[in-house]
């Protein structure tokens, strides 16, 4: 029992260390949402202010805003140690601030990305920075740099003209997956905007709402592996387990089990100058009625005298 208990303690120690070093980043990332962009749009004119924040994401603080600009990945702040909190850009620059933005925490959690485009042109398309849900009403705005109102604008989806609007707005009522795509707009005499991708998701597929299937699968697989390792460890320990059989120190009297060979007969068969011992290997017996379950075994050992 001591060997088995020792094996179990060692196995549990190993399992705890394995679990402590398991990288659940993929599971965690499946349940993390999107950073917030203020104002909530993907396109900005150059020198406009932009704020990207992760605070409150999943009810946690201490997030860092990370961005990929022209292939280079770095935090919003000058150093990693000072990069927690919102990323505040006072004057956006085309080559410096256009790119992908996401949230990270300790290298284990990573949110989904949002795309921000800073343009030096005269027209932008205002569309949501993160996905919209199926059934929502979404309004796209086409703006010029002079912030003129009541502009006539043309809206395009995947390069196809959708609508000409005298108000500079396009409203998509009760959006569906068919509304997902690449949108642009143009204003006569001002030019055309950059393209922005509108993502439409079903309500049960929004990453930051509740536990999702990938996370549940990761948890189930982890539990299964822990149980499997525990069982394998117990089986391995069982191979080296020591079994102790308790044999009584005082065997029953010879007269009790020597009906086939009496003590007198053993003594009569002994040679004059030799001593004979009748040794009975005593096995634990259980009786059903009056018959033993195990028959006694007799050994006769002759030991020569000195």
List keywords for this structure.
alpha+beta, 306 residues, Immunoglobulin-like, five-stranded antiparallel beta sheet
* Portion in helices: 10-25%
**Strands, total number:** 23
The geometry reads as: elongated
Highest CATH level, the class of one domain: Mainly Beta
The average pLDDT score comes to 74
CATH fold-level label of one domain:
Immunoglobulin-like
- Rg on CA atoms, Å: 41 Å
Give unreliable regions as ranges. Answer: 18-31, 205-213, 253-268, 270-288
Class based on secondary structure composition and strand pairing: alpha+beta
- The topology string of helices and strands comes to HHEEEEEEHEEEEEEEEEEEEEHHHEEEE
Estimate what percentage of residues fall within beta strands.
25-35%
CATH level 4 superfamily of one domain: Immunoglobulins
Largest sheet: 6 strands, mixed
- What is the second-level CATH architecture of one domain? Sandwich
Please, how many helices? 6
Distance between the termini: 45 Å
């Amino acid at each position: 029992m001591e060997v088995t208990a020792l094996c179990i303690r060692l196995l549990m120690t190993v399992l705890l260390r394995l679990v402590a070093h398991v990288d659940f980043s993929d599971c965690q990332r499946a349940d993390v949402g999107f950073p917030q962009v203020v104002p909530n749009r993907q396109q900005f004119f150059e020198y406009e202010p932009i704020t990207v924040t992760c605070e409150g994401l999943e009810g946690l603080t201490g997030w860092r805003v990370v961005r990929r600009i022209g292939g280079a990945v770095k935090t919003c702040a000058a150093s990693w140690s000072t990069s927690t909190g919102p990323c505040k850009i006072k004057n956006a620059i085309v080559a410096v601030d256009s790119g992908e933005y996401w949230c990270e925490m300790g290298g284990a959690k990573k949110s989904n990305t949002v795309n921000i485009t800073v343009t030096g042109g005269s027209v932008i398309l205002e569309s949501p920075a993160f996905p919209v849900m199926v059934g929502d009403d979404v309004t796209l705005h086409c703006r010029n740099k002079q912030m003129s109102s009541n502009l006539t604008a043309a809206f395009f989806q995947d390069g196809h003209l959708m609508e000409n609007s005298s108000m500079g707005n396009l409203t998509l009522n009760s959006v569906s997956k068919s509304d997902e795509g690449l949108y642009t707009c143009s204003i006569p005499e001002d030019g055309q905007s950059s393209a922005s991708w509108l993502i439409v998701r079903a309500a049960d597929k929004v990453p930051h709402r509740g536990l999702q299937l990938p996370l549940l699968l990761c948890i189930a697989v982890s539990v299964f592996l822990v149980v499997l390792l525990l069982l394998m460890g117990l089986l391995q320990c069982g191979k080296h387990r020591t079994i102790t059989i308790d044999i009584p120190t005082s065997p029953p009297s010879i007269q009790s089990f020597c009906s086939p060979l009496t003590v007198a007969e053993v003594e009569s068969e002994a040679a004059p100058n030799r001593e004979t011992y009748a040794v009975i290997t005593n096995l634990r017996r259980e009786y059903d009625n009056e018959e033993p379950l195990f028959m006694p075994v007799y050994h006769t050992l002759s030991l020569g005298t000195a």
